[in-house]
Amino acid sequence: MLERTVTELSALLACREISAETLTHEFLQAIRQRDPQVRAFLHVDESGALEQARRVDVRRQRGEPLGPLAGVPVAIKDNLCVRGQPTTCASKMLQTYRPPYDAHVISRLRQADAVLIGRTNMDEFAMGSSTENSAFQITRNPWDLERIPGGSSGGSAAAVAAGEVPLALGSDTGGSIRQPAALCGIVGLKPSYGRVSRFGLVAFASSLDQIGPLSRDVTGAALLLDAIAGHDPRDSTSVNRPVPACRQTVEQPVRPLTLGIAREHFEAGLDAEVEQSVREALKVYESLGAKIAEIKLPHSKYAIAAYYLVATAEASSNLARYDGVHFGHRSTEHQDLIDMYCRSRGEGFGAEVKRRIMLGTYALSSGYKDAYYLKALKIRRLIHDDFAQAFTRCDAIVGPTSPTPAFKIGERITDPLAMYLADIYTISANLAGLPGISIPCGFTKTGLPIGLQILAAPFEEEKLLRIARLFERATDWHTRRPKLAELPGIHEPGR
Ligand code: GLN
Questions:
Q1: Which of 96, 316, 369, 470 is most deeply buried (CB count within 10 A of its CB)?
Q2: Whole-prediction pTM value?
Q3: Per the domain annotation, does 365 fall within a domain?
């Protein structure tokens, strides 16, 4: 069961070959056996998951209509509010927080009759590219336990790659769904900005954040996107457009198909094996009838600088609410109110979060705002325009997701700039609001997965998924599985 796709699992559930309860038991068992090595989960809701599964089984027996994810276990990144359950953002600041409400995507999953199985580890407040910034535990890449799974949705990606869960939700502000998907050999989709409501997603950088699916195959991602997409009046940036029917259209090829490649995606810093796999993927597309067009993204060289100004500026504002009064950890020892704020924030936030708050506060400060923040916004517009121009000449842009395969735990943690460079190919999509997907396209000689990134014009998720599925149907990279020892372990979450 653990090796099946979501489509196969849904079919087996629908014809009662297996019950939702049995399936949930199987995945809970897999978590018990594999997660002591991988450490993807912060919290596993065994009893809640089994209860949800049983309810689905009862309703199925009664012949009641069921949602599209009925009985399918889904893992949730720990920055999405689930009513009454710990939602920590992997931060000491929110260690005891239990939201009084469900995020929009959680309500949607409940409507779809999915089984919410637990919460996954992440970089604190989604700031990072390796999941090492978690205040609670280090998640390991299932393909090589000495390496990072990527980040910030590293727990979600590792859990799916390890076969601990068939589907997971992550969030992507600068690449946090696509990059860990690439490094863990699975599929990760960041929807267009506005496609999915951010209501109940703990805000990092509000103009960039989007929630999206992680899955082993494109069809699973399509199914999960359909379930969470759509307008929600509680997020004023969620757009009122028809909900896509990605699952229904995903098998339709795109013809004619023109794929754009940008020189800027193949410059210094790109690992040779990653480049080779991506070039081979392009050949696969050509053999399927695609035309390749050279496009230009001349402002992408400023993307990292612009992103780390916009994202930190927004983060400094969003994280002001954690003062020990409105939200978050409150220091027990303090002299006066200001001292209490300082100590609470000093104790609650980790080093990277503090660095971002300081950078963002500086970029927004009087006298510097025009030189940094406003300049970054102008670059953001130019990056957006580069893409608009490119999409007049191609259906999608194809390149590497990450410049390197998974790096070793500890390798970049003391060098923030090296860590920020992991996002070089992913952040432009967030700055421009584009949908982007990462799909498996090969392995290094040492057996580490390589991801192919495909970007499409805003709100063209259906086309994007069809193009991704075209490649998936012609290759078998997505069918490979990491070898993990099956330990008789007992799950001990980090908190
Ligand atoms: N790695 C990027 C950062 O640290 C992106 C994070 C994300 O997408 N949440 O900001």
A1: 470
A2: 0.97
A3: no
